[in-house]
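Go through this one:
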Amino acid sequence: MAERSLISKMVVKSPRRKHMRLSLGAVVHQNSKKASLEGSESHRSKMSNSQLENTYKLQPGTQEKFQTETVRKVMWDTLEIKLHNVRYDAGSCGSLAKQLTDEITCRIKEHRWKRYKLVVQVFVGQNVNQGVQVASRCVWNADTDTYATVSYENSSLFAVASCYAVYYE
Protein backbone atom coordinates (compact mmCIF):
# COMPACT_ATOMS: atom_id res chain seq x y z
CA MET A 1 0.00 0.00 0.00
CA ALA A 2 1.53 3.31 -1.03
CA GLU A 3 1.21 6.23 1.36
CA ARG A 4 1.64 9.94 0.75
CA SER A 5 1.71 12.60 3.48
CA LEU A 6 1.29 16.36 3.35
CA ILE A 7 1.79 19.07 5.93
CA SER A 8 1.40 22.69 4.98
CA LYS A 9 0.52 26.07 6.43
CA MET A 10 -2.49 28.01 5.26
CA VAL A 11 -3.23 31.71 5.69
CA VAL A 12 -6.89 32.66 6.07
CA LYS A 13 -8.16 36.22 6.04
CA SER A 14 -10.58 36.97 8.83
CA PRO A 15 -12.76 40.08 9.09
CA ARG A 16 -11.61 40.75 12.68
CA ARG A 17 -7.99 39.84 12.20
CA LYS A 18 -5.72 40.45 9.23
CA HIS A 19 -4.18 37.00 8.94
CA MET A 20 -4.48 33.77 10.82
CA ARG A 21 -2.31 30.70 10.47
CA LEU A 22 -3.84 27.26 10.20
CA SER A 23 -1.92 24.02 10.29
CA LEU A 24 -3.08 21.32 7.93
CA GLY A 25 -2.26 17.66 8.13
CA ALA A 26 -3.49 15.35 5.40
CA VAL A 27 -2.83 11.72 4.63
CA VAL A 28 -3.94 10.10 1.40
CA HIS A 29 -4.05 6.30 1.27
CA GLN A 30 -4.27 4.48 -2.03
CA ASN A 31 -3.95 0.86 -3.11
CA SER A 32 -1.58 0.19 -5.97
CA LYS A 33 -1.58 -2.71 -8.43
CA LYS A 34 1.16 -4.02 -10.68
CA ALA A 35 -0.45 -4.16 -14.12
CA SER A 36 2.52 -5.73 -15.91
CA LEU A 37 2.21 -9.09 -14.10
CA GLU A 38 -1.56 -9.14 -13.76
CA GLY A 39 -2.24 -12.35 -15.70
CA SER A 40 0.56 -14.60 -14.43
CA GLU A 41 -0.19 -17.37 -11.94
CA SER A 42 2.92 -16.63 -9.88
CA HIS A 43 1.77 -13.04 -9.39
CA ARG A 44 -1.63 -14.18 -8.13
CA SER A 45 0.01 -16.41 -5.52
CA LYS A 46 2.17 -13.49 -4.33
CA MET A 47 -0.70 -10.98 -4.07
CA SER A 48 -1.35 -9.76 -0.55
CA ASN A 49 -4.80 -9.72 0.99
CA SER A 50 -4.94 -5.91 0.70
CA GLN A 51 -5.10 -6.06 -3.10
CA LEU A 52 -8.50 -6.88 -4.54
CA GLU A 53 -9.33 -8.69 -7.75
CA ASN A 54 -11.75 -7.07 -10.21
CA THR A 55 -15.35 -7.77 -9.29
CA TYR A 56 -16.94 -5.33 -11.74
CA LYS A 57 -19.16 -4.09 -8.94
CA LEU A 58 -20.18 -0.52 -9.51
CA GLN A 59 -21.69 0.04 -6.07
CA PRO A 60 -21.07 -1.32 -2.59
CA GLY A 61 -23.52 -3.73 -1.02
CA THR A 62 -25.79 -2.53 1.77
CA GLN A 63 -23.48 -3.99 4.45
CA GLU A 64 -20.35 -2.55 2.77
CA LYS A 65 -21.44 1.11 2.65
CA PHE A 66 -19.30 3.70 4.38
CA GLN A 67 -21.09 4.87 7.54
CA THR A 68 -20.61 8.59 8.09
CA GLU A 69 -22.08 8.65 11.62
CA THR A 70 -19.57 6.05 12.78
CA VAL A 71 -16.72 8.08 11.27
CA ARG A 72 -17.99 11.32 12.85
CA LYS A 73 -18.00 9.64 16.26
CA VAL A 74 -14.45 8.32 15.74
CA MET A 75 -13.18 11.75 14.70
CA TRP A 76 -14.98 13.57 17.54
CA ASP A 77 -13.70 11.12 20.18
CA THR A 78 -10.13 11.43 18.88
CA LEU A 79 -10.20 15.23 18.81
CA GLU A 80 -11.79 15.46 22.26
CA ILE A 81 -9.29 13.07 23.87
CA LYS A 82 -6.20 14.56 22.23
CA LEU A 83 -7.10 18.27 22.40
CA HIS A 84 -8.99 18.58 25.68
CA ASN A 85 -6.20 20.31 27.66
CA VAL A 86 -3.95 21.40 24.78
CA ARG A 87 -2.91 25.06 24.50
CA TYR A 88 -2.33 26.57 21.04
CA ASP A 89 1.33 26.77 20.01
CA ALA A 90 2.10 27.87 16.45
CA GLY A 91 5.35 25.90 16.35
CA SER A 92 3.89 22.53 17.27
CA CYS A 93 0.48 22.65 15.58
CA GLY A 94 1.81 21.31 12.27
CA SER A 95 3.03 18.10 13.89
CA LEU A 96 -0.12 17.97 16.05
CA ALA A 97 -2.30 18.11 12.92
CA LYS A 98 -0.29 15.29 11.34
CA GLN A 99 -0.53 13.14 14.49
CA LEU A 100 -4.29 13.67 14.64
CA THR A 101 -4.60 12.82 10.94
CA ASP A 102 -2.63 9.59 11.36
CA GLU A 103 -4.58 8.51 14.44
CA ILE A 104 -7.98 9.25 12.88
CA THR A 105 -6.97 7.38 9.71
CA CYS A 106 -5.86 4.32 11.71
CA ARG A 107 -9.05 4.29 13.78
CA ILE A 108 -11.25 4.59 10.68
CA LYS A 109 -9.35 1.82 8.90
CA GLU A 110 -10.10 -0.52 11.83
CA HIS A 111 -13.70 -0.68 10.56
CA ARG A 112 -12.41 -2.32 7.34
CA TRP A 113 -14.72 -0.84 4.74
CA LYS A 114 -13.78 -2.58 1.51
CA ARG A 115 -12.98 -0.75 -1.72
CA TYR A 116 -12.90 2.76 -0.26
CA LYS A 117 -9.98 5.13 -0.64
CA LEU A 118 -9.72 7.44 2.35
CA VAL A 119 -8.51 11.03 2.52
CA VAL A 120 -8.29 12.52 6.01
CA GLN A 121 -7.56 16.19 6.72
CA VAL A 122 -7.22 18.03 10.01
CA PHE A 123 -7.02 21.83 10.34
CA VAL A 124 -5.78 23.26 13.64
CA GLY A 125 -5.88 27.00 14.40
CA GLN A 126 -5.81 29.49 17.24
CA ASN A 127 -9.15 30.30 18.83
CA VAL A 128 -9.43 34.07 19.34
CA ASN A 129 -13.19 34.39 18.77
CA GLN A 130 -12.87 34.84 15.02
CA GLY A 131 -15.06 33.48 12.26
CA VAL A 132 -13.46 30.78 10.10
CA GLN A 133 -14.98 28.79 7.28
CA VAL A 134 -13.33 25.64 5.93
CA ALA A 135 -14.58 24.54 2.51
CA SER A 136 -13.67 21.83 0.01
CA ARG A 137 -14.73 20.64 -3.41
CA CYS A 138 -14.62 17.14 -4.82
CA VAL A 139 -15.59 15.50 -8.09
CA TRP A 140 -17.11 12.13 -7.37
CA ASN A 141 -20.06 9.79 -7.72
CA ALA A 142 -22.75 11.03 -5.34
CA ASP A 143 -24.28 7.52 -5.10
CA THR A 144 -21.19 5.80 -3.68
CA ASP A 145 -18.76 8.46 -2.42
CA THR A 146 -19.25 10.38 0.81
CA TYR A 147 -17.58 12.42 3.53
CA ALA A 148 -17.80 13.18 7.23
CA THR A 149 -16.60 16.27 9.07
CA VAL A 150 -16.50 17.46 12.68
CA SER A 151 -15.37 20.62 14.47
CA TYR A 152 -13.81 20.79 17.92
CA GLU A 153 -13.08 23.87 20.00
CA ASN A 154 -11.51 24.59 23.38
CA SER A 155 -10.47 27.90 24.98
CA SER A 156 -7.17 28.06 23.08
CA LEU A 157 -7.60 26.33 19.72
CA PHE A 158 -10.04 24.89 17.21
CA ALA A 159 -9.79 21.87 14.95
CA VAL A 160 -11.76 20.76 11.91
CA ALA A 161 -11.39 17.11 10.81
CA SER A 162 -12.72 15.77 7.50
CA CYS A 163 -12.70 12.27 6.04
CA TYR A 164 -13.51 11.67 2.36
CA ALA A 165 -14.38 8.13 1.28
CA VAL A 166 -14.20 7.40 -2.46
CA TYR A 167 -15.46 4.01 -3.68
CA TYR A 168 -13.44 2.26 -6.38
CA GLU A 169 -14.33 -0.73 -8.50
The longest strand covers residues 2-12. The CA atoms of residues 106 and 139 lie 25 Å apart. The beta strands are 2-12, 20-30, 116-126, 146-153, 157-167. Residues 1-19, 30-48 have pLDDT under 50 and may be disordered.
